[in-house]
Amino acid sequence: MNNPITEIVTAIDHCAGARNADEQVTAFHRYFTTDASFLHPLCYVPSGKDSRKRFIGIFLFYRSVISKATFDITSVAFNEEKGMLYVDLIQMPSFRVVSWLLWGWTPKVPMHIIFHLRKEDGKWRIDSEEDVVQPLSILKAFPPFRPWAIAWYFLCEVMGLLNAYIFMILGIWRPEEHIHRQMKKDFKKMKNSP
Question: I need a labelling partner for 177 at 20 to 30 A (CA). Which of 25, 63, 74, 154 fits?
Fold first, then answer.
């Protein structure tokens, strides 16, 4: 890439949203180094000799499950001195097998992608990609898991508030008294709500 800020949109589209497998493989060879690494909450490809081949395999599988992937890029920032490119986007995948079950619903998965770049032959190439995605966002993309994901986060919130209240009563960690009274009111409201 000569200008990573403008070209990364095309790179993402061709690597993750390619029209066919040949276009996808060609894009990986164009934008990624041969020893590129990949880190995602669901998989990891460490950097090594020809690691790009394994990386490509992951994305070929992804595109075989997803019939269409579109992206809404919300921001791009490039630190040329460190060779770091930051991309915030919302991914909208259409699942190949279950799309008819979703009645046209397309999940929106917010992601932050950190690319480490290095210069090869005068062009910037991606040396590693790190996808930062909240586990809840991944689970909410699969309708059967959606209620469980929401219930899990609600349970964690209740447990956090309950434990904070217990620690305040025990005097282990207590804010100023007026804050303590407000938290007691909030806890009672939450306890009485359905």
Answer: 154
| Measured distance CA(141)–CA(136) in Å, rounded | 9
Q: What is the pTM of this model?
A: 0.77
**Half-sphere exposure for 6 (CA within 13 Å, toward CB):** 2
- In angstroms, the CA 86 to CA 88 distance is 7
Task: Please give the Cα distance from 120 to 124 (Å, whole number).
Answer: 6
**133-72-44-153 Cα dihedral, nearest 10 degrees:** 20
Closest residue by Cα to residue 63 from 33, 28, 89: 28
137-189 pLDDT, tens digit per residue, is 887 777 777 788 888 889 999 999 999 889 888 888 777 666 667 777 777 77
Kindly give the interhelix angle for 4-16 and 51-65, rounded to the nearest 10 degrees.
60
How do residues 35-72 score in pLDDT, each as one tens digit?
Answer: 999 999 889 999 999 999 999 999 999 998 888 889 99
> Phi and psi of 174, rounded to 5°?
-130, 125
